[in-house]
Write a structure and sequence with these properties.
There is one protein chain. By secondary structure, the protein is mostly helical. It has helices at about 5-20, 30-80. Helices cover about 65% and strands about 0% of the residues.
């Protein structure tokens, strides 16, 4: 699974999760644990997809947000006058 594309990995994992309880009958003592593991795997996939979509939306909106902040900053700075209120201190010679 290391050299596979993300799409191929997704298809493989979804198939693995789907098959987790494929042969699980109601008379198998481990059926509850296997079905619970399947629910946890599905929840992990759903959470990963939700987070990835959130990151994609943030990345999509980021350029316009940066442009808006830059525009506002330039507007704020445009009307400012430079200030030089620092007093020049005495020059001190440093000898070794």
């Amino acid at each position: 699974m290391t050299n596979m594309s993300l799409a191929d990995q997704a298809v493989e994992v979804l198939g693995m999760v789907r098959a987790m309880d494929a042969d699980m009958t109601n008379d198998r003592p481990e059926r509850h644990q296997v079905r619970n593991l399947k629910r946890m795997a599905e929840a992990a996939i759903a959470e990963g997809l939700r987070r990835a979509a959130e990151f994609a939306w943030i990345a999509k909106d980021l350029p316009s947000l940066v442009a808006e902040v830059d525009k506002q900053a330039r507007k704020d700075v445009a009307g400012m006058q430079p200030v030089n209120d620092c007093e020049q201190g005495p020059n001190v010679e440093v000898t070794g």
